[in-house]
Amino acid sequence: MCWVTYKRLRSTLQLLAAPGASEQQRQLPGRRLAEVAYGGKEPRFAAAEPPWKAVNARLDASQRRAVSLALRAHDVALIHGPPGTGKTTAVVEVILQEVARGSRVIASAASNIAVDNLVERLVAAAPKLKLLRLGHPARLLPQVLDSSLEAQVLKSDNSSLAKDCRKEIKALNTQLVKLEGWKRAERRQIRGELKQLYKEERTRQDKAVKEVIGGAQVICCTLSGALHPQLYGQVFDVAVIDEAAQALEAACWSALLLAGRAVLAGDHLQLPPTVLSDEAAKGGLGVTLFERLQHAHGAGASEMLTVQ
């Protein structure tokens, strides 16, 4: 784990340490989920199932029950299943159903491969979905690069204007190099124009990034990526974590605190995430949030997938 990620995870845990103690903590969308996880409150569900029509007509009965549970959840729903039961398939359906009813979703997993898998499936199921994949392009699979922030920003109007600014900057720099040294007044004028153009280019580029992020219906990123400054101030209706039983509890909260509701999918009976420190494992870091919630509320808050 790099130092930056460590500091971000530490700050997330500090927000959880005394929920509601500060104004920032009171404004966290996911504060209710923290009360369910640590405060002894029970997960809440709507009494009636909301109407929905499956995007994937091949869902089996247990997957449909899992999607229904997730759509009824006011706080958190768990999708549990052994390998090969289609947990990610159910997760994709949940995301599409949430978007269909106007929700904004942050979808995460511990690894880039798992996130890219989600992106591929979502794009295949809903090509017109406004989906954004956050993450360094070098770490993404080639087939999801069109959904990356960099690719989306290049398509925006503000990015085109920023590109025009860069062309003008290049032309003025060329002119400045060719200008005789004794023409000081002209050189000062060009430098002044360059200063303004550099400022305009940065402003346009920043606007393009904010425009793309703000306009996304679904943002997909790793759990550590959810802590990136580009997501500061972004609020989501639902946080979805795939392979949640393979993620550190601290990492899960980086995404969960950004949303008012949560859906976690995983299998706590498989191998948990690797914890190198024996002291940390004894202190509870070896127990995932999925396992904790499953043991505390599994009977009423979880749906098990049964068809392999």
TrEMBL record:
The keyword DNA-binding applies. Residues 59-277 form the DNA2/NAM7 helicase helicase domain. One of its GO terms (molecular function) is DNA binding. It holds the Pfam family AAA_11. Its EC number is 3.6.1.-. The keyword DNA-binding applies. It is an enzyme of class 3 (hydrolase). Coiled coil: none annotated. Keywords: DNA-binding, Hydrolase. PANTHER family: DNA-BINDING PROTEIN SMUBP-2 (PTHR43788:SF8), DNA2/NAM7 HELICASE FAMILY MEMBER (PTHR43788). This is DNA-binding protein SMUBP-2.
